[in-house]
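The following record pairs a protein chain with its ligand, zinc ion.
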Amino acid sequence: MTKRCPLCGLGRLFRRWFLVKERCPRCNFPLERIEGHWIGAVGMNTVVSFGSMLATIVVGFAVTHPDPPIGTLLVVTLLVALLVPLLFFPFSRTLWSAIDLAMRPPHPDDDIDPDWIPPGRLSR
Ligand SMILES: [Zn+2]
């Protein structure tokens, strides 16, 4: 959630908001480990975005009950639908990389700096 490398904790993994580096500059951890790696991040971003829209609608109706301003709620929900995926984008990438690292330990093919691999965590 802090846009840091899931292995060594270094920040600076993004060239720009939407452009992630291929590898961590410190430990050489590959941020895209397999083809299609980012599908998980896209899925997380989708869930967070739709969850935010649902929360906006539910809270909006609850706060303004019994006379909800439908037009205002629609505009606010559309703004949430536009902004949340853009703002959450880099966090979804590093968060997904951390989840992937937890599920699939470092592999020799990952070409990671061995100093950063915890003892006993290298898969064969
Ligand atoms: Zn790193």
